[in-house]
Structure formats: structure tokens, C-alpha cells
Amino acid sequence: MADCVFCGIAEGRIPATTVRQDRDTVAFRDLNPQAPTHILVIPRRHIASVADTDRSDTGVLGAVLAVAVEVAAAEGLDQSGYRLVINHGADGGQSVGHLHVHLLGGRPMTWPPG
Ligand code: DGP
């Protein structure tokens, strides 16, 4: 989508610090990091929200999760731990309308989240 910032990053039109990309996904550092490591993993295909997926999307959903796990290990977080987050809608705190998985690590996380 032309007016989607994450589509722009996936297509190389908008700069980002990309840490991994493949045919279906892109992982890049969050512009406003909430932890020492804060990376977003997105599908290249525009999907507005996780709420717009169903069982026919298990391939892409599995891909973004698997990439998040791989990137976490590459960032050295697999022993210390990390958090994966998907926000949906206003109450979920979603601000960008392109499905993304947050990978947060490098500090202890608290629960419940704010
Ligand atoms: P959420 O609130 O779950 O929709 O998270 C959106 C995240 O996207 C937020 O942590 C900030 C990040 N973000 C927004 N715009 C940009 C951008 O242009 N570049 C990068 N790298 N991150 C962005």
C-alpha cells in the first residue's frame, strides 16, 4: 500500500535499519526502541492487523514468528530471554496498520504490560 510506512520499508522506499529479510518477511530496528533490543518483524504483504488473518494465513504468521525467534538468537537473546508482542487496535496499542511482531529484549520485562 502506497501510504503504509511499513510497506515503504519492505519495498526500500523508506529507510530502516534492516537486520534480516527474505522473500516473505523483513526485520528491522524500531525507530522508538522500548528495550536495548527492539526489532519489528513484518510480512512483506500488506496485512493491516493480526485480526485480519485466518487459518489461510498460517504460512505468513508462522514465518514472522520463526524469523523473530531466529533474530532473537542472532541478537544473543535466547539465553537471557525476550518478549514477542503483537498489538491490535486501539486498546491493544497498535499505531501502525501493518501487521508486525515486536521483539523486545536486553532487559527484564514486567508483567502485566502497561
Ligand atoms: P505498534 O504500536 O504496535 O503499532 O508499534 C509500531 C512501532 O513502529 C512503534 O514501536 C514505532 C515503530 N515505528 C513507527 N514508524 C516507524 C518507522 O518509520 N520506522 C521504524 N523503524 N519504526 C517505526
Could you describe the 3D structure shown?
Strands 1-2-3-5-4 form a five-stranded antiparallel sheet. The N and C termini lie far apart (31 Å). The protein has a single domain, classed as HIT family, subunit A, CATH 3.30.428. With 114 residues, it is of the alpha+beta class. The chain has helices at residues 5-10, 58-74, 89-92; strands at 18-21, 25-29, 37-43, 82-85, 101-105. β2 and β3 form a beta hairpin. The longest helix is centred in the middle third of the chain and has 17 residues, at 58-74. It is built from three helices and five strands, in the order αβββαβαβ. The structure holds 2'-deoxyguanosine-5'-monophosphate (DGP).
Q: Topology as H/E string?
A: HEEEHEHE
Look at the structure and name the CATH superfamily: HIT-like
CATH architecture: 2-Layer Sandwich
Structural class: alpha+beta
Bound molecules: 2'-deoxyguanosine-5'-monophosphate
- Number of continuous helical runs: 3
Q: Strand order, biggest sheet?
A: 1-2-3-5-4
Distance between the termini: 31 Å
Residues in helices, as a percent range: 10-25%
The overall strand count is: 5
CATH fold node name: HIT family, subunit A
Strand content: 15-25%
Low-confidence stretches: none
Salient structural properties:
single chain; 114 residues; alpha+beta; HIT family, subunit A; 3 helices; 5 strands; binds 2'-deoxyguanosine-5'-monophosphate
Secondary structure blueprint with pairings:
Blueprint: H1 5-10, E1 18-21, E2 25-29, E3 37-43, H2 58-74, E4 82-85, H3 89-92, E5 101-105
Antiparallel strand pairs: 1-2, 2-3, 3-5, 4-5
Bound molecules: 2'-deoxyguanosine-5'-monophosphate (DGP).
